[in-house]
């Protein structure tokens, strides 16, 4: 039987190319980088009394392994799937099997596969991230 974490631990997985976020043309946040986004996530999490573990990977298999290994250490997942939105069947299957509450944030693309508690499609990643953390905080 799996144990729920006593503290509100949230796992954040940044998918493919999020490490190159500063190279994207994002009108609402033109100077955003992954480091700035993570700093903002930590600031919001602190206010919500959440503890974060943040990883970035371009490899879906690695993301699945991380979710499986960390499943008893977090109570919610915030996912920036990027291109996985359309093809991450293995990750989707893992999340369904483990019944982990998760929120996805897409960068303006229609989400076809990854449907968590909520999907947030916003150009402003800072606001989208804050909404996602608030939603997860209320759900876990």
Structure in words:
- The chain has 140 residues and is α/β, with parallel strands linked by helices.
- It has one domain: Rossmann fold (3-Layer(aba) Sandwich), CATH 3.40.50.
- 36% of the residues lie in helices and 19% in strands.
- The chain has helices spanning 34-47, 60-70, 89-98, 125-139; strands spanning 9-14, 51-56, 76-80, 102-106, 118-121.
- A 5-stranded parallel sheet has the order 2-1-3-4-5, sandwiched between helices.
- Helix 3 (89-98) links the parallel strand 3 (76-80) and strand 4.
- Helix 2 (60-70) packs parallel to helix 3 (89-98).
- The two termini are 18 Å apart.
- The relative contact order is 0.22.
What is the total number of structural domains? 1
What letter string, H or E per element, gives the SSE order? EHEHEHEEH
Distance between the termini: 18 Å
- What is the subunit arrangement here? single chain
The radius of gyration is: 14 Å
Low-confidence stretches: none
Strands of the largest sheet, in order across it? 2-1-3-4-5
């Amino acid at each position: 039987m799996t144990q729920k974490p006593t503290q509100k631990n949230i796992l954040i997985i940044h998918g493919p190319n999020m490490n190159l976020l500063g190279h994207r043309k994002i009108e609402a946040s033109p100077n955003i980088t992954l480091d700035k986004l993570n700093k903002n996530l930590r600031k919001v999490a602190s206010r919500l009394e959440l503890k974060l573990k943040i990883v970035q990977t371009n490899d879906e298999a690695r993301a699945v392994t991380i979710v499986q290994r960390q499943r008893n250490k977090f109570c919610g997942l915030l996912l920036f799937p990027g291109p996985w939105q359309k093809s991450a069947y293995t990750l989707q299957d893992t999340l369904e099997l483990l019944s982990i509450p998760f929120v996805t944030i897409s960068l303006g693309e229609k989400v076809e596969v990854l449907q968590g508690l909520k999907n947030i499609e916003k150009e402003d990643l800072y606001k989208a991230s804050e909404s996602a953390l608030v939603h997860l905080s209320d759900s876990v």
